Amino acid sequence: MRILGIDCGSQVTGYGVLESDGRRHKLVEYGTIRTSAREPFAARLKTIYRGIQKVFEGFSPEAIAVESAFHGVNPKSSLQLAHVRGVALLSGAEAGLEVGEYSPLEVKSSVVGYGRASKEQVQMMVASLLALKEPIRSADAADALAVAICHATRIRMTASTQRRGKAVG
Fold this sequence. Notes:
Distance between the termini: 28 Å
Structural class: alpha/beta
Mean pLDDT: 92
Number of strands: 5
Oligomer: single chain
């Protein structure tokens, strides 16, 4: 399955596309969508939307996974992040894709095995799981790939649990 992971941010939104069967993951593409803090917020949302659309067009994901909002200290930043998440979720729903949402704790637990892992630990594990020679420099892109890996793993676990339930029942 081809999965697009998105790490939402109002200035830098990371994305990562991978192929996965839930056990093995292969990197397809990663990058960031950058906006300018000098632009009106609505224009920044439009830039992010168009960036996500370009990724859809270029890489044809079958699913999209987005990190759920965490409660930050700054209410304005939290609200802006929620708007960016809305753009990402709408993009996936509008494209008819399977959409998954995961908390930062779920993503880190899935990828690193520890829900309070540092950004560096996430970058190292993403590199390891994707058999890369070195970690991805962009923490935003690495986080997006971690979200995609989490989604792939959860789909596999859910399918496995459902198969076992049917076999027993």
